[in-house]
Amino acid sequence: MDYLIETRKIVDEVNKTLHRLGCPELIGKIKLEWNTRFKRKVADACYSRLRIRFAATLWPHMSEHARRNTIIHEVCHIVNRHKDGYKHSSHSYSWRSLMVKMGIQPNRCTDNIDTFALGISKRRKRYRVKCGCKDGTWIGQIQYNRMLKGTIYKCQVCHQRVEIYSKSQDIMVNLTNQLQDLLIGE
């Protein structure tokens, strides 16, 4: 992908959006950057720095439609802050109304990119832990390591204390679940 050509396209879309939203004074003032560290978000905007950053790793895998929506989404954040200051949250009613004015649904910027298949991100290891729920719950690597060091967590569903299964308990839970699945399937 030629990032110089893409940057020119983005500048044109930013300027059109600023003009349509009634903020021509911001034309030429917003800095655009390519970020190679973004692995999940496709872009972000910062009004205090008048900057929009785009994910260099994800951008080539997005459709033209998703790219345009992302640009408008981020410009609306900057215009919202420019007009209203910090009195509203970033996805407030005023921001949503700017998106609707541009003819775009005020949704998350995503094109459902499988970052794992592209080799951009890794699959996260998950651990089954026990709580008051029938099948327990799952936690990530960081929470698991913290629990090993003594941190106490509560299940977000049943609000009971979460505990790590021992290896033998984990095997028994898996066998019990498999047996229940077989019985239900019959």
Describe the structure.
This protein is α+β, with helices and mostly antiparallel strands. It has 2 domains: 3-101, 2-Layer Sandwich (Zincin-like), CATH 3.30.2010; 126-185, no CATH class. Helix content is 40%, strand content 13%. It contains 5 helices and 6 strands; from the N terminus they run αβββααββαβα. Strands 1-3-2 form a 3-stranded mixed sheet, covered by helices on one side. α1 crosses α2 (64-84) and α2 crosses α3. The longest helix has 21 residues, at 64-84. The N and C termini lie far apart (53 Å). The relative contact order is 0.10.
- Please trace the helix and strand order, writing H or E for each element: HEEEHHEEHEH
The number of E-state strands comes to: 6
Mean pLDDT: 87
Structural class: alpha+beta
Domain count, please report it: 2
Strand content: 5-15%
The CATH topology of the largest domain: Zincin-like
Radius of gyration from the alpha-carbon trace, in angstroms = 23 Å
CATH superfamily of the largest domain: Metalloproteases ("zincins"), catalytic domain
Number of helices: 5
Which architecture of the largest domain would the CATH scheme give at its second level?
Answer: 2-Layer Sandwich
**Low-confidence parts:** none
Largest sheet: 3 strands, mixed
CATH class (first level) name of the largest domain? Alpha Beta
Helix content, binned percent: 40-55%
Shape: elongated
Major β-sheet strand ordering: 1-3-2
